[in-house]
Specification:
B: alpha/beta, six-stranded mixed sheet, four-stranded antiparallel sheet, 10 strands, 24% strand, globular
Chain lengths: 261, 272
């Protein structure tokens, strides 16, 4: 299938859904409106709300805050994950000692941490960053840990036979291997950074997309809730696209699944 | 005047501890030498510990008993005089062909600006001059072996250890690679230990062919000198009368071991 056809079909799906939504929420079927406006709003109102946000410029501030929080969460979480992942993989004793605690913390639903972070770090951006960090950290940590542990035995032996010192093995073998594993989880970890930020905002803040949605919900403004959700979705798709571009540049050496690079 | 001995395994024994606590003896009483400039092929049935012996010579494995001497010095740690060509893919997948070859020099402290042109020269001499920018996954199996060969040879090791390096390749590519190897080796005649299960390949390449018995506790059971004239061409040498005579002679010994090894591996499979 050509790219144009694919795109056309993708757009078609969106149009069908929106038209159905619009019709069912405005035109009565057998004397009854199937999607009552109070609960479901309608696409035209939602779209009007989005236009209003962008026209008045109020949305930019919220987007900016959410983006900042996501980036900070991603950077801090990744850095921590890489460092600790490396450390644990190279020191099996440390890994063994901390193993139950890592599992314990990872099993915790992060939402329950949000109130604590709000208490410790206030209602500003840092409590949301902290929440995002707890999500991103574990994804990156497990991937880097795995990446360092699963370096091919032969490649390692080859490095040794070529005369590499421990430090050179680190630089030329362990590090690239760990990074490739980290990048393979890039989509997931970036996604979780956004989730952390938005959930944090939703639970208590004065700005951001999560705050916007929570505010609309508070006054039963369903159009506002849907508008917030759409802006958030578009935001995530854009970020994901950016990640794909970065990935393509950094992982050129990796074979693609569907054939040769 | 005698040529110095490059590699000497004396009475080497290699044993592994298995998961269930038993000890598996892979190789026993192994005497193996390679003189400087000598091409020695080690042939044996599958699972007889050929690669084990090579790893001992490389210093990747420590023998349980016996000694390893490299140029008459006991080997401690890794064998710094040796270059090792692995059976499996051992290139760094995140480096281009050129960087893969250059790294052999860079780890030794050669500046990158100097290593790169030399790596390019080596890539050209293994016939891959135009593929410098490719990553390993973009190369065919045979091309990857060529890069690996360049990666090892650029360091100019005194000893070459090769573990079924052409094993995964198809028959035609193997012959081409064999000729390439002989050409490169002819230039400065390093000591070579070449492990293979292919007797024809062994005779065509080597000065001496060493036969190992089926494992476990395999030992060296035969040592033939190949006096076919050099330089050789692998395609041609196989038509030689002397080649056939030698092949028949060695095969009569090797055949029994291959059958034994086969019987053992099927028994082991049934036991599992």
């Amino acid at each position: 299938m050509s790219r144009v056809t694919l795109l056309a079909l993708q757009i078609l799906v969106a149009i069908v859904c929106l038209v159905l939504w619009q019709l069912l929420s405005t035109v009565p079927v057998f004397g009854k409106i199937l999607l009552p406006p109070f609960f479901f709003s309608n696409p035209v109102d939602v779209f009007a709300q989005i236009v209003k946000w962008f026209a008045s410029g109020v949305i930019w501030k919220h987007l900016g805050i959410t983006l900042t929080e996501s980036i900070l969460a991603f950077v801090i979480g990744s850095a921590g994950g890489v460092l600790i992942g490396f450390w644990f993989a190279r020191q099996p004793l440390v890994a063994a000692v901390f193993d139950p605690y890592v599992k314990m913390v990872n099993a915790l639903p992060r939402v329950v941490l949000a109130p604590i972070f709000a208490l410790w770090l206030g209602l500003g951006i840092w409590s949301k960053v902290a929440l995002g960090v707890t999500l991103v950290f574990f994804i990156v940590f497990f991937n880097v840990y795995q990446g360092v542990k699963e370096v091919s035995r032969t490649v390692l032996d080859n490095g040794r036979m070529l005369g590499m010192s421990e430090r050179q093995l680190m630089q030329h073998v362990y590090w690239p291997s760990a990074l490739s594993w980290m990048f393979s989880s890039l989509h997931t970890s970036v996604g979780f950074a956004v989730v952390g930020a938005v959930v944090g905002e939703y639970l208590g803040s004065a700005a951001g997309l999560g705050y916007l949605i929570q505010q609309a919900e508070g006054i039963f403004d369903v159009a506002g809730v849907f508008a917030g959700m759409f802006v958030l979705s578009a935001f995530v798709i854009l970020i994901d696209y950016g990640v794909t571009l970065v990935e393509r540049r950094l992982l050129v050496w990796r074979p693609t699944v569907d054939g040769r690079g | 005047m005698t040529t110095p001995t490059a590699v000497a395994l004396e009475d080497a024994k290699v044993a592994f501890r298995l998961g269930d606590g038993r000890v598996y003896t892979a190789v026993e009483n192994a005497h193996l030498t390679a003189a400087q400039g000598e091409f020695v092929a080690i042939v044996g049935p599958t699972g007889c510990g050929k690669s084990t012996l090579l790893n001992v010579a490389a210093g990747l494995l420590k023998p349980a008993a016996g000694s390893v001497k490299i140029f008459n010095q006991p080997l401690a740690g890794l064998n710094r005089d040796a270059g090792y060509l692995f059976q499996a893919d051992a290139l760094f997948p995140w480096k281009t062909a050129l960087d893969n070859v250059a790294i052999g020099l860079e780890v030794g402290g050669t500046p990158r600006s100097e290593a790169l042109p030399r790596a390019q020269k080596w890539l050209t001499s293994v016939g891959l001059g135009a593929f410098a920018g490719r990553y390993p996954h973009m190369l065919s199996g045979g091309q990857r072996k060529r890069v690996a060969l360049a990666q090892v040879l650029i360091r100019d090791p005194k000893i070459l250890l090769m573990d079924e390096p052409f094993g995964p390749l198809d028959a035609q590519t193997r012959q081409v690679m064999g000729n390439l190897l002989l050409d490169l080796w002819n230039a400065d005649r390093k000591a070579v230990l070449f492990v293979t299960h292919d007797l024809e390949e062994a005779i065509a390449l080597a000065d001496r062919v060493v036969i190992m018995s089926a494992g476990p506790s395999s030992r060296i059971i035969g040592d033939w000198r190949v006096s076919l004239p050099r330089p050789r061409d692998i395609f041609e040498v196989r038509l030689d009368k002397e080649f056939h005579a030698l092949h028949r002679e060695i095969w009569s010994v090797l055949k029994d071991e291959v059958m034994k090894g086969y019987a053992q591996s099927t028994q082991a499979a049934e036991a599992v």
